Amino acid sequence: MRKRDIGWMLWLNDDELKRLKSNATKAGLSQSSYIRSFINGYKPKEQPTREIFEMLNQLRGIATNLNQIARKANTLDFIDVPYYEKTTKKVKDFIEKFEKEFMDIS
């Protein structure tokens, strides 16, 4: 049995309908779910893009590399300087790319 058995009609102009469809799609919700979210006091956010997920995976890889450097340094009392410099360059490149793509920082 349906949980929602009350239908309700909503009148929109063309621009409002386009925004509703676009915003609901970006949030990964149906139009009805999108509207119900607002009624329940929640403002839906856009789903992360593929690029963000790819960048998070890159960041996880960099973090793993840094962890390996730290473990090696603690175990051997020695830091692999070339590997450390290579990894820090990855961090700087990642930050630069992230800022350029998602924060409009030049």
Blueprint (SSEs and pairs):
Elements (H helix, E strand, L loop, with lengths): L13 H14 L3 H9 L10 H27 L4 H22 L4
Helix pairs in contact: 3-4
Largest sheet: none
Number of helical runs? Answer: 4
Overall outline: elongated
Number of domains: 2
The percentage of residues in β strands lies in under 5%
Structural class: mainly alpha
Helical percentage: 55-70%
Mean of pLDDT: 86
**What string, H for helix and E for strand, traces the elements in order?**
HHHH
What is the terminal-to-terminal distance?
A: 55 Å
Radius of gyration: 23 Å
Number of beta strands = 0
Unreliable stretches covering 5 or more consecutive residues: none
Explain what you see:
Helix 3 runs antiparallel to helix 4. The protein is mainly alpha-helical and 106 residues long. The termini are far apart. It contains four helices and no strands. The longest helix has 27 residues. It folds into two domains: 35 residues, no CATH class; 53 residues. Helix content is 68%, strand content 0%.
